[in-house]
Amino acid sequence: MDFRDLVAAKRDGAALSDEDIRTFVLAFSRGEVPDHLAAAFLMAAFIRGLDANETLALTSAMVESGASLALKGVSRPKVDKHSTGGVADGVTLVFAPMAASLGLAVAKLSGRGLGHTGGTLDKLESIPGLRTDLSSDEFERQVDRIGLAVAAQSGELVPADGALYALRDATATVPSIPLIAASVMSKKLAVGSDLILLDVKAGSGAFMKTPEDAEALAEACIHLSGRWERKARAAVTDMSQPLGDAVGNALEVAEAVAVLRGERGGRLTELALEFGTVAQQALLGVGEADAQARAQETLSSGEAAEAFRSMVESQGGNPSVVDD
After folding, report:
1. Is 82 annotated in the active site?
2. Does the structure show a pLDDT above 80 at 153?
3. What is the C-alpha to C-alpha distance for residues 233 and 80, in angstroms, rounded to an integer?
4. 81, 187, 201, 309: which one is catalytic?
5. Closest to 41 (Cα-Cα) out of 68, 66, 16, 78
6. Where are the beta strands (DSSP E) in the chain?
7. Are 221 and 181 in contact (CB under 8 A)?
């Protein structure tokens, strides 16, 4: 295949076949397609759009570009949570240890910052010594042992997404619903979670500026999970103002630690508790009121903070950040 023909076809508005997209993405992940041609494909897809079948093919090809992690050795119910990002969005930093302290397992592959906001990995790497480049074996062992791991996709897991993710940031093709949905869901579908929770942001501090666009993105992600026969829930949440009071990677980690220690309330805490409640309802069969109380107790008692400490220490970070 001459991949220039594929880019030209999308540039001119044609719908690409599943096999054309699969061949292109897998060749790109092997280094057989140069960055400039992949960047041209992203711009063509950004301008012309991708239909539901093309988005599914792109997602499937990115998953196929690496190994999948079934997590069959993890006995706890497994939940994965993703946010589309925004200003002072530290919900994952609070939700993940909260869920682990509630008896769930959180196996999360995260991305780096796009556009104006840092990603979960950027935030975590502000902790001295903490590493996010875990191998698949390290990732699964940690989830089984402490119920929690947050890591980067590697050469083993969805490497095509990692490479395309960086190109999207460099080529101003980030705010595309099909490209975002494929990127988000490829990382989620490569890991064998029992439930995928999606926090789709809308507002001036998010990539989706309107609730309508955010709903369209949420629906695209839910459609992909359904085609893969995976259980998923999505919420559209407000990002018209910063979610927390701190802005900046290290500052947001410090704020999340304060929330985990039960020392801070506000919108960040409320949203993390909401996701903790939904996860328990879906995976543990707990009623809403009881689930809310249990989630709040993990913060009040310090159990969530201890789960965060275990994750930081397990990934080579300095656990004293939980104390100071």
Report:
1. yes
2. no
3. 11
4. 187
5. 16
6. 78-83, 105-110, 148-152, 195-202, 232-238
7. yes
What is the CA angle 217-205-166, rounded to 5? 65
| Three-state secondary structure readout of 98-138 | HHHHCCCEEEEEECCCECCECCHHHHHCCCCCCCCCCCHHH
Residue 75, CA distances (Å) to 71, 141, 187, 275, 291 in order: 9, 12, 21, 21, 21
Q: How many other β-carbons are positioned within 10 Å of the β-carbon of residue 37? A: 16
Mean local confidence (pLDDT), 133-146: 91
Q: Pull the structure tokens for residue 191.
A: 């890991």
Strand pairing report for 195-202 and 232-238 = parallel
Is residue 169 part of the annotated active site? The answer reads no
pLDDT band, residue 110 (cuts 50/70/90) = confident
Confidence tier at 302 by pLDDT (50, 70, 90): very high
Query: Of 237, 203, 189, which Cα lies nearest the Cα of 64?
Result: 189
Active site residue 309: no
For the full predicted model, state whether its pTM sits above 0.85.
yes
Q: What is the mean pLDDT of residues 76-89?
A: 88
- Whether the per-residue pLDDT at 116 is higher than 80: the answer is no
Is position 223 annotated as part of the catalytic site? no
Q: Using CA atoms, how far apart are residues 163 and 199, in angstroms rounded to an integer?
A: 23
Q: Which of 20, 80, 161, 194 is catalytic?
A: 161
* Cα separation, 237 vs 288, whole angstroms: 19
Dist. CA 278–CA 151, nearest whole Å: 23
